[in-house]
Amino acid sequence: MVFEGLANRLQDTFNRLRGKGKLSESDVAEAMREVRLALLEADVNFKVVKDFVAKVKERAVGQEVLQSLTPGQHVIKIVNEELTELMGGAQSKLAISPKAPTVYMMVGLQGAGKTTHTGKLARLLQKDHKKPLLVACDIYRPAAIKQLQVLGEQLDVPVFSLGNEVSPVEIARQALEHAKSYGHDYVLIDTAGRLHIDEALMDELKQIKETVQPNEILLVVDAMTGQDAVNVAESFNTQLDVTGAILTKLDGDTRGGAALSIRAVTGTQIKFAGTGEKIDAIEPFHPDRMASRILGMGDVLTLIEKAQASIDKDKAIDLERKMRNADFTLDDFLDQLQQVKQLGPLDQIMGMLPGMNKVKGLQNANVDDKQIGRIEAIIRSMTPTERTEPGVINSSRRKRIAAGSGTSVQEVNRLLKQFEEMQKMMKQFSGMAKKMKGKKGKGFKLPFMP
């Protein structure tokens, strides 16, 4: 999970501060040493770390903090605010041209995920009912044009290409004319990358920039390259005046130093984060939410947004009714699993829940999405009657279900036991709700009732 190592170190440090009734300057100094080491280990730029620690320490040794009844909480609040500021303060949204089409130029080194994230941006625009056009300007990398065309087919988004015999500058110019003629409101230009920054690459990008006058020049950076990502961002920014960055592979990087350094070193705002391989695995970068994740406070707002975008409202209402009436079946359970899968990898979802990484038994738990697949296979191997009335599933049926799902009888037993406990709990809540409803008219109120 992104920032895992940094998050664990910082949270351990602040838990020790929380345990102290009063803080001295030496307590703050010791905590700041731990913060400094944690940031350096996360591959954050040395100068950025030095400035960050100095700012936090200066604020944390003030009278308001040291004489507070909850000084530990004050220090955490200061760190949260400074982390947010370090990553850009507020969310930076994409620029939109007052006159269509809006042009986004994607740049970066080869292998950073530029073509893939061009497709991901097109998908986001599609969801917002826009009409994007993908432009294949990478004529050098073998199969780059084909990769973009495959993405276009997958998304049902047109791809403008003139093959690899025409110059990228001319392709970009003609693509812009094509977009104007066919009513595309967005043009996403996938430019060529190199294995390293060279003069020829930059000259070509400058010419494309001059020709199409893009509204955004988005630098796609591989977060797993650590400090190299910051160096790449600095070089591109110097030459092209990059307007924003997209950090890719944040799902696989446990350090995350690039995210904390790019904005401070280059002044370039991070606008999006790539969080997986799927075409939907991209999200707007919110500095405040990312700071909360790092400090173990979760990211409930992003989780809610994901849920609103993925979960069927009618199904949710029907589920609420079934749970209220204790009428929840294995078919309903299967449906819920499928909706949860749409939210993204389970470890990322859990990382958005406040304090989840500190819950006993979950700190080192391997949250495996394949487990959901096994549960789905077990339920799908049941007959309609078995899903509605699990009580009929005897020993021979359990063996048949296990064989049909490629699992063991023990796994089938475990699922049935867990489902039975879930149903009991729902019946209890349903009974309590009915009793409370009856008593409410007699003047009985729960503390949270209006």
UniProtKB/TrEMBL annotation:
Q: Which InterPro entries match?
A: AAA+_ATPase, P-loop_NTPase, Signal_recog_part_SRP54_M_sf, Signal_recog_particl_SRP54_hlx, Signal_recog_particle_SRP54_M, SRP, SRP54, SRP54_GTPase_dom
Q: Where in the cell is it found?
A: Cytoplasm
Q: CDD domains, alphabetically?
A: SRP_G
For this protein, what is the EC number?
3.6.5.4
Matching entries from NCBIfam families are given as: ffh (TIGR00959)
Q: How would you summarize the oligomeric state and partners of this protein?
A: Part of the signal recognition particle protein translocation system, which is composed of SRP and FtsY.
- Provide the protein name: Signal recognition particle protein
Organism, per UniProt? Answer: Tumebacillus permanentifrigoris
The encoding gene: ffh
